[in-house]
Amino acid sequence: MAQATTTERFLGWLKTITFYELLVGMKATMSHLIHYKPITLQYPHEKRTLPDNYRGMLALLRYDDGTEKCVGCDLCEAACPSRVIRVVSAEIPGEPTKRYSKEYSMNMTRCLFCGMCVDACPVDALGMTREFEWAVYDKRDLQLNKQQLLAIGDRSFPVREKRLELQHQNVAFFNVAFKHVPQKPN
Ligand code: SF4
Ligand code: SF4
């Protein structure tokens, strides 16, 4: 028993003079130093790979014939928890059953990028792009109008959908305002 105690005391003394606990504590640090791999990206020269479901700057979209998808229904404005969106809708001249957004603006200083406006839109007129480099010196530059939002959509979604009437024939068949009604399939 006395022998064991002497051994333990010797080991304790050895640990003290060799800073054993300190070395154990530094093990993870030393391991990182030896296998050093930088994790800092030198932005803007290096850029991180964005996840597939990244939610960046919002955009307004068009159909493949250039028509704006937005029908001015205001649902995005109602769904937005931060009051980012403002829509002023009007009838399409000569087509009283159809509406469009005469004015559409977004105050992007308030946006949470939650995507609720995109989910609320019944015609998929809104999209979230992968654009994130929108730092500005004047926050008034983040008050985007319809033409700016359409331009973002044009560059971010170059492949556009066909008009809704042409995607779903039943929509066209029952849409009395659509001039070129395709034949309903048998
Ligand atoms: S992403 Fe969210 S906060 Fe931003 S405009 Fe859409 S609903 Fe509003
Ligand atoms: S973007 Fe969609 S939800 Fe918003 S007003 Fe236009 S059609 Fe309606």
UniProtKB/TrEMBL annotation:
Coiled coil: none annotated. Residues 59-90, 102-131 form the 4Fe-4S ferredoxin-type domain. Keywords: 4Fe-4S, Cell membrane, Iron, Iron-sulfur, Membrane, Metal-binding, NAD, Oxidoreductase, Quinone, Repeat, Translocase, Ubiquinone. GO terms for cellular component: plasma membrane. It is found in: Cell membrane. Its EC number is 7.1.1.-. HAMAP family: NDH1_NuoI. This is NADH-quinone oxidoreductase subunit I. It comes from Nitrospira lenta.
